[in-house]
C-alpha cells in the first residue's frame, strides 16, 4: 500500500509541476484559469492522499472547502472575464 501511495504522490507532484508551467506560460487567461483549477484539484487529491496515508479523516472539511473555493473562483472569473487582446 505504501508503494501505491508513493507512486501516486510522485505522479501528483509531476502533474503539478507541468500545470505550473501552463499557469506561467498560458497564452490566454482562460488557459491560466483552467490550470489554476487543475492545481486546486491536484491539491485536493494530495490532501486526500495524505488522509489515506495517515488514516485521519479530520482533513475532509478542508478538502470540501477547497472544492467550494475552486468552484466559486472559477465561476466568478469566467463571469467577469474580459477578452484577451492579441
Structure, described:
Helix content is 81%, strand content 0%. It is mainly α and 86 residues long. It is flat and about 50 Å long.
SSE topology:
Blueprint: H1 2-25, H2 29-54, H3 60-79
Helix pairs in contact: 1-2, 2-3
InterPro entries: MrpF/PhaF-like
Subcellular location: Cell membrane
Protein name: Cation:proton antiporter
- Classify the beta-strand content into a percent band: under 5%
Our count of domains comes out at 1
Percent helix among the residues? over 70%
User: SS-based structural class?
Assistant: mainly alpha
User: Total number of helical segments?
Assistant: 3
Q: Summarize the biggest pleated sheet.
A: none
- Can you tell me the residue ranges where pLDDT is under 50 for at least 5 consecutive residues? none
Membrane topology: Multi-pass membrane protein
Transmembrane segments: 6-25, 32-53, 59-80
Protein name: Cation:proton antiporter
Subcellular location: Cell membrane
Amino acid at each position: 500500500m505504501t508503494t501505491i501511495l508513493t507512486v501516486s504522490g510522485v505522479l501528483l507532484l509531476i502533474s503539478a509541476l507541468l500545470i505550473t508551467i501552463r499557469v506561467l506560460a498560458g497564452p490566454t487567461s482562460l488557459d491560466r484559469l483552467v490550470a489554476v483549477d487543475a492545481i486546486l484539484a491536484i491539491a485536493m487529491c494530495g490532501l486526500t492522499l495524505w488522509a489515506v496515508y495517515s488514516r485521519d479523516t479530520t482533513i475532509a472539511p478542508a478538502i470540501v472547502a477547497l472544492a467550494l473555493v475552486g468552484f466559486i473562483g472559477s465561476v466568478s472569473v469566467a463571469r467577469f472575464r474580459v477578452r484577451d487582446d492579441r
